[in-house]
Amino acid sequence: MIQVVICDDHAVLRRGIRDTLAEATDIRVIGEAAGYTELRDTLRQAACQVLLLDINMPGRNGLEVLASVRESYPEIKVLMVSMYPEDQYALRCLKAGAHGYANKAGDPLELVRAVRTVHQGRKYLTPEVAQMLADSLAQPTPEVPHEALSEREMQTLQKIASGKRLTDIAEELMLSPKTVSVYRARVLEKLQLSNNAELTVYAIRNSLV
Fold first, then answer.
1. What is the pLDDT of residue 139?
2. Could you tell me which residues come within 8 angstroms of residue 28 by beta carbon, excluding any fewer than 6 positions away?
3. Which residues contact 93 (CB under 8 A, 6 or more apart)?
4. What share of residues in the chain are helix, strand, coil (percent, to 5)?
5. DSSP 3-state assignment of 102?
6. In this structure, are strands 27-33 and 2-7 parallel, antiparallel, or unpaired?
7. Residues in the chain with pLDDT < 50?
8. Is the sign of the CA dihedral 101, 49, 183, 55 positive or negative?
9. CB atoms < 10 A from the CB of 114, how many?
10. What is the pLDDT of residue 141?
């Protein structure tokens, strides 16, 4: 039996996903959460194998939550679900460690297939995402320095460039200030920058904030 937890801030959408998965005899929804705080408590109590995570939530967005889950529960397969078209977030989610990206407006049977696929340890790709990957391999774009950043490092870069202090960033990401300082140092090194001012200019020039 595939044990699933759903994290989405809309109760109606959670119910719709739960009802869809209930049609599958090999899938059982064992928990729900409306945000990261609830999800963190749920994962402490539930032996979750697959997490369905909405990308658009208030407070910490899905990519930030994905990074936290990957750090604390690396064994959980994360399937990102969203109303956004694949071309906006799919590749970024996969690069950040998600096992798949499914559109909530798509065929319900595809959602069941996606859960089964990621549970087996394979990536779930819609035909649209597969085509995007093929196109990116066929016509690689010039690499820019910030593409080498991890999702955590990118979050740190964006928050510093937005004027937030390390202590504030640590609180938002639920990390220690020392850990955030390490991420900042890695960002500066990878981008070959010297201080926060240069980092902010870089973020603005590359439309990262």
1. 66
2. 1, 2, 3, 4
3. 55, 62, 63, 66, 80, 101
4. 55, 15, 30
5. strand
6. parallel
7. none
8. positive
9. 24
10. 58
| CA atoms of 82 and 103, how far apart (whole Å) | 5
Q: Please list the alpha-helical segments (H only) found in 31-165.
A: 36-45, 62-72, 86-95, 108-119, 127-138, 151-161
Helix (H, G, I), strand (E, B) or coil at 5: strand
Q: Which CATH architecture has domain 145-205?
A: Orthogonal Bundle (1.10)
Tokens in use for 15? 């119910």
pLDDT at 86: 65
Give the residue range(s) of CATH 1.10.10.10 domains in the chain: 145-205
**Topology (CATH level 3) of domain 2-138:** Rossmann fold (3.40.50)
What confidence tens digit (pLDDT) does each residue in 22-73 have? 999 999 999 999 988 899 999 999 889 999 999 887 777 788 889 889 988 9
Structure tokens at 135: 């196109």
State the Cα–Cα distance between residues 31 and 93, nearest whole angstrom. Answer: 23
As a whole number of angstroms, the distance between CA 55 and CA 41 comes to 19
pLDDT of 85: 66
User: How far is Cα of residue 100 from the mean position of the Cα atoms in its chain?
Assistant: 10
Q: Running DSSP on this structure, what letter comes out for residue 140?
A: P
